[in-house]
Amino acid sequence: MTQLAIRRWDPETALVAWIASVVSVASFFYYFHRGELLLYGDAVAHINIARRVFDSRTPGLLQLGTVWLPLPHLAMIPFLVSDRLWRTGVGGSIPSMIAYVFGAVGILRLVRGIFRASGGPHNGARFAAWCAVLIYAANPNLIYLQATAMTEPIYLALFIWAVVFFADFVRILTSVDQTEKEPTSSALNKCGLCVAAACLTRYDGWFLAGVLCIAAAAVLTHYKRAFPNWRRTLAILIFLAIAAPVLWLAYNAVIYRNPLEFANGPYSARAIEQKTSTPGTPPHPGAGNALIAASYLLKSAELNVAQGNWGRLWLLFTLVGTAFACSIGSAGRFWRCMPLLVLWVLLLFYMFSIAYGGVPIFLPVWWPFSHYNVRYGLELLPAFAVSVPLAAFFLVQLARNRNVQFAGAIMIFAGVFASYASIWRDPICFREAWVNSRTRLALERELAAYLKALPPSSTLLMYLGDHVGALQDAGIPLRRVINEGNHRVWKQPADPEGLWERALATPERYADFVIAFEGDPVSMQVNKTKIASLAVIHVSGQPQATIYRAEHQR
């Protein structure tokens, strides 16, 4: 291997992995002790989607559904076999915690690679790399999310490593030494594998896949004379990048008879927006306006790293750092700045998703002064983590005096600590989860108390889309519950042989008890002529829940 080769687990990398692991485990136990792992409704949903693959009246991979991509759920399954890990939510946290550690290591690798490409000084590279790790791994919002079953930590890790391997590919290809072509192919293949995994984690990955394929094609065609095998290398990347989206589209086409079921189906973000929006008013800020949508995402990114208007300094330093990274080095300068520019692609993705895809972001400081999807701003954390240290390094280097440089470095670290300290007690992602969970958890706890009192062998009929957490809290196995997943979805809208449809029509034949929430499919479709109401649960801000007793006829 040449000097460009990277020792994957050198002492510095191992130290970052160890520190990140300690932070991950310590914060997990903190939130676990406070009972705050399951505040996000989406986290509860992710855990139970994974659980019902094997714990269901109709188990199998079709229980993965359509709206959310399958990789995070598949990763959770081994940890959710245990009933205790399922009920507490711990099984859903483990993949996120592992991803958090790999994300921190990836940030270290990425920043060191940028300096390696430019021939930057070793001390400067070490300072910038550790500052980048600090910004990423010490972020209070990411620390909370990695302790939960949310998909953002997993996606961020895959995103970071895709950029790491893409940067390795560009650095080797544009180096003066043009003899090491096998590592070039290897780096791009690894990039493709990370992109494929990202495409099965979040839809952000689909946009990332297209951007990286275009960027790789541009670099390879420019250096094609030095790399005769470029067509095969590019073809492998494109295959890996499109394989996952094509697989998901085919799955939706075969099962739901609609390849875009996840985008325009009844459970899609667009459908939910149409149901909840008020006629005559804009559905959400930024709808139909890409610039306003971008401003909301950038503001949410600011709120994820600092309090008040201090986040604007983060944006300023990030832009300066990106510009600086694009100016260092000589040969191949334009190509070598591409990996850093890729870190900004999520801004474009969310800008268009908010404007035209029915994906809202509500901020507490802007209209409508609420909390919803504020965590999406965390997707720009890798850009902050990499670019801010580069800007700091550039500004410190302007001073020739070493004492001034040292003082500047201390001020930069202090600034990061002060910024994070301002949000540590109340990270906005945690606040979002807490604000939106209070009434939901109150309803689910009260319902769970009733469910625990039911006979342990009884069968329930219940729609799981909104309040599956009540079953999780009560410890009732999902195989005891007839739900919307127990039918042949490719026979929609009605499956005459589906258990779900039969139970809705004649609940007394299939279930002992029926749980209906006002407005859900059970409440609207179940035949109530032979069932009697046992209890009605009212919680302010939540739909009324009613428990019925069915005259079960075997």
Walk me through this protein's architecture.
- With 554 residues, the chain is mainly alpha-helical.
- 61% of the residues lie in helices and 4% in strands.
- β4 (531-537) and β5 form a beta hairpin.
- α1 runs antiparallel to α5.
- Mean pLDDT is 88; it is low at 1-6.
What descriptive keywords fit this protein?
554 residues, mainly alpha, 5-stranded mixed beta sheet, 25 helices, 5 strands, globular, disordered N terminus
Q: Helical stretch count? A: 25
- Sheet-strand content, in percent, reads under 5%
Strand line-up of the largest beta sheet:
2-1-3-5-4
Structural class: mainly alpha
- What percentage of residues falls in helices of 4 or more residues? 55-70%
Low-confidence stretches: 1-6
Encode the helix/strand succession as letters: HHHHHHHHHHHHHHHHHHHHHEHEHHEHEE
Radius of gyration: 25 Å
Number of strands: 5
Summarize the structure in short.
By secondary structure, the protein is mainly alpha-helical. Helix content is 61%, strand content 4%. Strand 1, helix 22 and strand 2 form a beta-alpha-beta unit.
